[in-house]
Task: structure prediction
Amino acid sequence: MFLPKHSAAAIILCSALLAACVPARKYEEAKTRADTMQAEVDVANAKARDAQAALDEMRSESEEIHKRLTRLQQDTSVLGTSLRQMTGQYDKINNLNNELLDKYNKLLAGDRSENRKLLTDLEALRLDLLNKEDSLGALAGRIKAKETALAEREATLAELQAELAAKDAAMRSLKDRVSAALTGFEGKGLTVEQRNGRIYVSMENKLLFPSGSAVVDAKGKDALSKLAKAIENEKDLSILVEGHTDTDKIQPGSAYKDNWDLSVMRATSVVRILQESSRVDPVRVTAAGRGEYIPVDANDKAKNRRIEVILSPDLSELYKLVKE
Result:
């Protein structure tokens, strides 16, 4: 602790007064003591200042320590909460681990008979798989054979389609030639049509025969001769000549028994003229009588009385392709 400055001044004043009242020696002693006391006061003041600075520093350090303590308490609280959470999680993990260990131990300690059963089932599955692999191998072989057969059939189909297209083109060309050859007769009881891969030349009886007769007249012979010339060079052509009548019954005394007989005789007369007028191979020609049973117009008997020459392409090669 240090003395205030006014205390030091009082001491000096007292010393001066004493000096005036005492002898010089006394004065000197008093002055010496005063100087000593002043020095001590100065030392005490210096120590007091150092002590005050130390105290201030200690206060500052105390405040800092207090702040650190507060932060440590806060951190401790947070760490405590985190520790409790981690402890809970650890307990859960530990329990789960114990549960897994328990299940694992139970599996290890499983019944040997069940293990043998599992092994037996596994062996059965393995054998079944081998059998299925063998079956799959056989199935793959059959599939390969089917694929080969399918490819062959597709090739045959392509060839068949090409052959049909060629036949159809040839028949269209023939139909054009027949139409051109019979141009003067079309619209006069004669029609030429192509349908279903065939050519139908239909001639009404008025163009060929007198009523009730199977003898072809001159106009009919001319038409049939032109038709024969148009088709005589077609070597792969089948020629079917069909005779058709109306529903009128044959009159008693007629040379024909019935409409069947009349239709056949008329078809035969046409076939003979086709052969006589050209080099048509008779092997390719057929005469047929259809009687009254395939009419084309129920209200027009004249149209039903007709000859139909049906020209068909030779499909024997196509049949061979289909059978292969």
Summary: The chain has two domains: 5-81, 167-323.
